[in-house]
Amino acid sequence: MFLTVPTLLTWTRIIAIPLLVxxxxxxxxxxxxxxxxxxxxxxxxxxxxxxxxxxxxxxxTSSFGAFLDPVADKFLVCASLLVLVNLQRVDVFVALIIxxxxxxxxxxxxxxxxxxxxxxxxxxxxxxxxxxxxMIAIPFLLFHGHLFGVIDTNRWGRWLIWLSAILTVWSMxxxxxxxxxxxxxxxxx
Length: 189
What we know:
Elements: H1 5-22, H2 30-57, H3 63-86, H4 92-114, H5 125-143, E1 146-147, E2 151-152, H6 153-188
Antiparallel strand pairs: 1-2
């Protein structure tokens, strides 16, 4: 299942991440850099929805695809956050919260899967809301201007990325609380 259409879309998202980072190294005019990076991020983020849709529609779901898809998402978000920190559009503290949570929850999910309790930390609506807020905040911050001459994407992006950081902590606490009973039962054995 390494070469299905959905998995190839996921691989494309991973391989294209250096292109997103590289846009800011090309020496283009800043507004053009911002626009190109924003469009690239939105297209890459859309492939996340598309690969899942196609996997279900074409009956090409696989355990490898289920593993790779969230990894690609995390790479995309983390790479974008690092670019935004470098551009001084996101506070390092916010990036550390978001990236740290992604690492911690990924490790927790792996551990719970080894214990046979993966369902206790299955994706919850709170995590989906957090991801949605991130996926709106990041392109706003990449664009860094006025959308349609009206929407100050920098201001909205900063508010949304802070909201995302709050949701990040909240969802991490939620997942840890869900895993705690299983962890306690394993420690007692």
